[in-house]
Automatic annotation (TrEMBL):
Pfam families: Fer2 (PF00111), Fer2_2 (PF01799). This is Carbon-monoxide dehydrogenase small subunit. One of its GO terms (molecular function) is oxidoreductase activity. PANTHER family: OXIDOREDUCTASE WITH IRON-SULFUR SUBUNIT, XANTHINE DEHYDROGENASE IRON-SULFUR-BINDING SUBUNIT XDHC-RELATED. Keywords: 2Fe-2S, Iron, Iron-sulfur, Metal-binding, Oxidoreductase. Residues 1-78 form the 2Fe-2S ferredoxin-type domain. It comes from the Bacteria.
Amino acid sequence: MRLNLNVNGRAMTADDVWEGESLLYVLRERLGLPGSKNACEQGECGSCTVYLDRVPVCACLVAAGQAQDREVGTVEGLADEEELAPVQRAFVDEGAVQCGFCTPGLLVAADDLINRVPEPSDAEIREALAGNLCRCTGYEKIMAAVRTAAERNAGTGISGSTGGDRE
Ligand code: FES
Ligand code: FES
């Protein structure tokens, strides 16, 4: 099948796609967007989290055919040309990245949270990130990064996300 979708604001097409292959495979192997990571391919780790029609999903669990004519936002779309998104800057500033394998999925999940909930509580942050597993950290720096991102986001009113500017 020919797959047409909008990724990070750009119309993209992939040919010879099998309907049952995953959206993650399409993004990484057919569209040259390797930011979303494949760690478990079973919906368990969240490293493949992307926005699908502005809702975070595990791209490894979305069949390519389900993405036909829909809007996808990946970690590559979080920053604009000039600067990092608030979540990206905060992860750097708080040292929340070690090996980085979980980071793309965490960034999308955190970006979604801070754009839905301007002042998230620690419980809300934990709940929002519950589907994203990090093998490297004790999560404290990740928590700190999301708090910092939320504070900065609330302070500027800027949404850096592809998917978080919901109406
Ligand atoms: S690779 Fe998709 S949830 Fe782990
Ligand atoms: S930073 Fe290594 S898995 Fe999270």
